[in-house]
Specification:
By secondary structure, the chain is α/β, with parallel strands linked by helices. A 7-stranded mixed β-sheet has the order 3-2-1-4-5-7-6, sandwiched between helices. The model has no long low-confidence stretch (mean pLDDT about 95). It is globular. The protein has one domain: Rossmann fold. It contains 12 helices and 7 strands. The chain is about 40% helix and about 15% strand. Bound molecules: S-adenosylmethionine. S-adenosylmethionine binds next to helix 1. It comes from Kitasatospora viridis. Exhibits S-adenosyl-L-methionine-dependent methyltransferase activity. InterPro entries: Ppm1/Ppm2/Tcmp (IPR007213), SAM-dependent_MTases_sf (IPR029063), SAM_mthyl_Trfase_ML2640-like (IPR011610).
Length: about 300
């Protein structure tokens, strides 16, 4: 994984994949989440300019494993994590850090309370592309938006602090679709750091995959369709190392954690992916954690 690449290759291109999925979700009559900016990213990048942004543009429609089921998965994930962030802000948190923000437009889409700051951490070339596209749309953020161009394997705390992050204020952290691309040691260090930077009352959500998902489901239609249709070989981008038990480590430090499957939310919302055989989503878990206030 090169540190300088933008959205046109390697792990940066996965941000376009999620943007295309959000565009498709946005145009569904029963959409779980709306992101009107998503299709503009897809159209603007040479790597994705020919990808669909509506399910009607996919010849086999919802039967297509990539633009049907996988895209719906991203739509559901977007909705669940939107709700989590809005809930955290509603509970009084005014500082938001998006780790591996990619083409996340929550700083523009969500109804933030007054006084919220959204820090977006990603590599410089990804944020530069995002800036260029959003600039062309004259998009107006609904919070104070602070891009922090830095690689999470480098001194991101220094960059975040220099950008105005306040350690004494509770923070809501999000690592959506990020941890698969980080070495296990980097994940452990990331959460050590998040814990250290989190004032009581902070919250955190992230997505992980159980180890077995990587190899046991390597012939899953989700992986093969993504590689064949858009040339993104997710398995070659994922770091194939045993993963740390980050939820356990956070619990050991006093965080209250809750681990859910995406399918729990499909059932809750009445739409989204359900389990199937040889399923690349079988090991996906969404983890939510809160650092209690001093009084608990
Ligand atoms: C699948 S995308 C997800 C983007 C966004 N969180 C979302 O869900 O739409 C993964 C993102 O992680 C970023 N990323 C991966 N490794 C990174 C690193 N070492 N430092 C900073 N960003 C990284 C990529 O550039 C990419 O934007």
């Amino acid at each position: 994984m090169a540190g300088t690449e933008g959205v046109d290759g390697g792990v940066g291109a996965t941000a376009l994949l999620v943007a295309a999925a959000r565009a498709i979700e946005t145009h569904r009559p029963d959409s779980l989440a709306r992101d009107v900016y998503a299709e503009h990213f897809v159209r603007a990048a040479p790597a994705s300019a020919g990808w669909p942004v509506r399910i009607g543009q996919v010849p086999d429609g919802d039967a297509n494993p990539l633009w049907g089921r996988f895209a719906r998965y991203f739509g559901l994930r977007t909705r669940v994590l939107d709700d989590f962030l809005v809930r955290s802000a509603g509970a009084g948190i005014r500082q938001v850090v998006l780790l591996g923000a990619g083409l996340d437009t929550r700083a523009f889409r969500l109804d933030w309370p007054a006084g919220c700051t959204v820090f977006e951490i990603d590599r410089e070339a990804v944020l530069a592309f995002k800036h260029r596209v959003l600039g062309g749309l004259a998009a107006a953020p609904t919070a104070l938006r602070v891009p922090v161009p830095v690689d999470l394997r480098e001194d991101w705390v220094g960059a975040l602090t220099a950008a105005g992050f306040e350690r004494s204020a509770p923070t809501v952290w999000l690592a959506e679709g990020l941890l698969f691309y980080l070495p296990s040691a980097a994940e452990t260090e990331l959460f050590d750091t998040v814990d250290r930077l989190s004032a009581p009352g902070s919250s955190l959500a992230y997505e992980v995959k159980l180890d077995r998902d990587l190899l046991e489901y390597r012939t899953s239609p989700l992986y093969t369709a993504t590689a064949e249709q858009i040339g993104i070989d997710l398995l070659s981008l994922f770091i194939g190392e045993p993963r740390p038990d980050s939820a356990g480590a956070l619990a050991g430090r006093g965080w209250c954690t809750c681990v859910r499957t995406p399918f729990d939310y499909t059932r809750e919302h009445g739409r989204g992916p359900l389990p199937e055989s040889n399923d690349a989503l079988a090991g996906n878990r969404w983890v939510f954690a809160n650092k209690p206030t001093a009084l608990g």
